[in-house]
Amino acid sequence: MLASCATDGNPSKTIITDVPERPAGQEDMIAFAAEPIDTVRVGFIGLGMRGPGAVSRFTKIPGTKIVALCDLDSANVERCQRILDNAGLERVASYSGEEDAWKQLVERDDIDLVYIATDWKHHAPMALYAMENGKHTAIEVPAAMDLDEIWALINTSEKTRKHCMMLENCVYDFFEMNTLNMAQQGLFGEVLHTEGSYIHNLQDFWGEYWNNWRLDYNKEHRGDIYATHGMGPACQLLDIHRGDRMTTLVAMDTKAVTGPKLVEKFTGEKTDSFANGDHTMTMIRTANGKTIHIQHDVMNPRPYSRMYQLTGTKGFANKYPREGYAFEPEQLDSATMPDHENLTAHSCISDEQKAALIEKYTHPIIREVGEYAKTVGGHGGMDYIMDYRLIYCLRNGLPLDMDVYDLAEWCSLAPLTRLSIENGSAPVKVPDFTRGGWQKLNGYRHAYVKE
């Protein structure tokens, strides 16, 4: 890990992580658009928990061709071949049985996009090899687990001029997209504070992870190791590296209580060493004086929540545990908002008013493909929208909705929160992963084909 200025447990000092110089001859990938690809040829690596769903969705996305499938377990490959059978498609090349079988898929010359859905430790090495072999990459979350991996992905994407996108599906959930559209149109005034989390009791899932890899990762690593579901929507609302950037974070955690019990349950071994606390909290400040609050808890019996909250100077949005909006009355349009004159910003608008608001401010992408996405599925349709948008942008030669710097910023909480926690919740400077390019764009926007 690239870090300096150790605190010796004294939180009065700030930890600064190194920002390596951009290699000579390279340029940033901000607003980068590759040449259009008429039919995007895809190879999938990792067909355990998430991979089969992705294969199924891609059978329903126009302008794609599934070329190859890879998993260490041949039974998983066969399961996905049957998905192609059921979709009326021909079976494709298969790779399995050996630890490096995935390299054979990556080295093919008839693949444009490598879609990676393996365990976390393999994400970055596979993506790096894919870009070096001339492929765009889409990587399941989290795409990188430490700063060395993050900088390697940035440098390789810049060097090869290949997209490196993290498959963060939660930015495509319906409430988040509609709220983002409202924010972009100024409905909340200036957005000052956002919140996000991954609070999900995984008691029904721990045993499903191949070779117990996810529990092992929590056992060995401290900090918010799975922050991207909360970070993605929060950062898009604040235009991170599109006019603002994260500058400092502070993190703390509880002691580990449930984690060691899970190790004993699934391995039969007692442990006195479990790195990750049951619950982790992070506070982040931006260059423009905004704040972000992120939480992580996969151990304890709390109802599922990604928190998703927005505080603005003229309005408020909240998704969990109950969706709601509140506004200064003058923010609302009487033509579309029933009884807006009787509103108070101290309470949420009524269900009837909320329905009228969403009808007016439904995000264009949701309006275009949302209902079909629901029929395809994948976390209520947001997975399909994520894949659909990736292919839409590749086919039309547009900048992707999420770039390699989004990947870097959202994944950086894993190493940076660990640094903060292990040094007495010391402040940690967040690296500028754009290396000076964060003000090139003025606000986050999705790219569309110009009519």
Describe this structure in words.
This protein has 451 residues and is of the alpha/beta class. The chain has two domains: 136 residues, Rossmann fold; 232 residues, 2-Layer Sandwich (Dihydrodipicolinate Reductase, domain 2). Helices cover 33% and strands 16% of the residues. It has 14 helices and 15 strands. Strands 1-15-9-10-11-8-12-13-14 form a nine-stranded mixed beta sheet. Strands 4-3-2-5-6-7 form a six-stranded parallel beta sheet, with helices on both faces. The longest helix is centred in the C-terminal third of the chain and has 15 residues. The model has no long low-confidence stretch (mean pLDDT 95).
Key features of this structure:
Dihydrodipicolinate Reductase, domain 2; globular; alpha/beta; 2 domains; Rossmann fold; 9-stranded mixed β-sheet
Chain-wise SSE layout:
Layout: E1 15-16, E2 40-45, H1 51-58, E3 64-70, H2 74-86, E4 93-95, H3 101-106, E5 113-116, H4 120-132, E6 136-139, H5 147-160, E7 164-166, H6 174-184, E8 191-199, H7 213-220, H8 228-237, E9 246-253, H9 258-267, E10 280-286, E11 291-297, E12 309-312, E13 315-318, E14 324-327, H10 351-361, H11 364-376, H12 382-396, H13 404-411, H14 413-422, E15 428-429
Parallel strand pairs: 1-15, 2-3, 2-5, 3-4, 5-6, 6-7, 8-11
Antiparallel strand pairs: 8-12, 9-10, 9-15, 10-11, 12-13, 13-14
Helix pairs in contact: 1-2, 4-5, 5-13, 6-11, 7-9, 11-12
